[in-house]
Sequence to fold (364 residues):
Amino acid sequence: MSKDYYDVLGVSKSSTKEEIKKAYKNLAKKYHPDINNEDGAEQKFKDLNEAASVLGDDAKRQQYDQFGDAEAFKRAGGQGFGGFDSGGFGDFASFDFGDIFDQFFSGGGFRSRSRARNGADIRADIEISLEEASSGVEKILTLPRIEQCHSCDGSGAATPSDLKECSECGGAGTSRRTQRTPFGVFTTTSTCRTCKGKGKSITKECKTCDGTGLIRKQRKIEIKIPAGAEEGTNLRLTGQGEAGESGAVSGDLYIVIHIKEHDTFERHGDDLYLKISVLFVTAALGGEIDVDTLGGKAKLKIPSGTQSNTVFRMRGKGIPHLHGSGKGDQHVEVVIEVPEKLSKKQKDLLKEFGKIGMKKGLFS
Fold:
């Protein structure tokens, strides 16, 4: 009777590779011949290996799903796990399941040489004024960072002839080790310890960088901050981070913008807010007043009878939109200024004003 690999592992056809891996790991430990002496345990263990070797490989799993059962899959040329010898594995407790499972479900193959490490990203914080945020500004940032050594062009060798093929790995950058496991014989590939995966060894080191290929320098970088930048705006400068090893990709520089607190304006999004005092006479009779904006003085018309704490909107007098055209608005809250000292004539006039207002029912 043909086997269904999904049933063998107790998973569904929609299960992820991680779910299949987890099910296989649990069942393999349960039915391993070294710890399970029940009849049929050894065959169950073989079936688990066969199922996992197919479902743990994306290409084989896709092919298996097309045929629907193990026998049809094999007849079509599909191959499962190559089998194993259940005896002679030594102490089961000393075997590292986690290591072998990672290899088993890794998708196959090892890179012949480890990649050089990319450079690290750098974060820098810059504080600007509200006026600079509104208009945009260029800043010069002095930054300590790791760069490629200019003396050896990042090779770490004193001269090009001092860079030789690694004698340990023959330039492959990797070493191979064969290991007998409960699942068969596995050959593992690891980074060469002598050349650290580079495939090259240095006979004479560069004096400037001591063979690392990297040096630390102070670098001045021009930062262009766009108009409309706000608190927390993040700018990314690709490749301006620290240099990578052996010519690998450099990291990026991330600039975080901070806005200084302003003496006059409060900013909310792209709108500005401020309070301004207005004379009692201007509020009562109406008129024009000068108002501060980030672009200089501007006129604001005050209608007659304006009450204290009235808010007026000055369209387009706010901050430019960072990701679009146009600007925000400026909101002006007027506060009626009551004179603290009055002359006798002013007092008499106000008293007369009050009497007239009472007679005409203007005041409550």
